[in-house]
Amino acid sequence: MSTFGVILPSFIVILLIAKSLTMFRENIYIQGALGGLKAAAAGLVLIAVWQVGRTAVSDVFSALCAISAFLLIAVFDINVVYVIILFLLIGVAKEFLFPGKPALDPVAINADEKESTKKDKE
In whole angstroms, how far apart are CA 107 and each of 1, 49, 56, 100? Predict the structure, then answer.
């Protein structure tokens, strides 16, 4: 019941906005505002991609996987679930065939090194 109470207000607001937008569909100011919102949303998505990509793509292997996944989804229209499963298996196979350090977040690695250096000095 609490989930219903959390979801209902948002649902009502979205419903009212959708109803209002259909009434003002021909209004050039509303169309301009929506165009600006679309551009802002695209910018936010690009920032998220950049931030995740900086930490997720840390070596040549992960860069090749990212590019390949993009091509499989965008060009060849392969289902995202299949691409995720494929690269999960490729990552596991890589670690079995070529064991080594997995690609980690460089920020986390630096934080761990600073922490261990700090403990050594004490």
Answer: 41, 17, 11, 19
Query: What is the DSSP code string of 103-122?
Result: P--HHHHHHHHHHHHHHHH-
Residue reference for tokens 């929506």: 34
Which residue type, as a one-letter code, is found at position 99? P
Fill in the DSSP letter of residue 25. Answer: T
pTM: 0.54
d(CA 56, CA 104): 8
Instruction: Give per-residue pLDDT as tens, 43-88.
Output: 999 999 999 888 888 888 889 999 999 999 999 999 999 999 999 9
d(CA 14, CA 20): 10
